[in-house]
Amino acid sequence: MGFVYSQLVVQLPYPTGSYAGKTVVVTGSNTGLGKEAARHYARLGASRLILAVRSIDKGNAAKADIESTTSCGKNVIEVWQPDLGSYASVKDFAANISSDLERVDIFNANAGLARKKYHTAEDNEETITVNVVSTFLLAALVLPKLKETMKRFNVRPTLAITSSGGHTFAKFPQKDAPEGQIFSTINDPNASSKVFAEQYPLSKMLEIFAVRSVGENDPGVTVNCIDPGFCESELARDQDGIFFPLMKFFLARTTEKGSRTLIHAGSRGSQTHGKYLSNCKIAEPSDIVTGPEGKKLQERLWIELTQKLENIQPGVTANFRA
Ligand SMILES: NC(=O)c1ccc[n+]([C@@H]2O[C@H](COP(=O)([O-])OP(=O)(O)OC[C@H]3O[C@@H](n4cnc5c(N)ncnc54)[C@H](OP(=O)(O)O)[C@@H]3O)[C@@H](O)[C@H]2O)c1
Question: Does 3 reside within a domain?
Answer without folding.
Answer: no
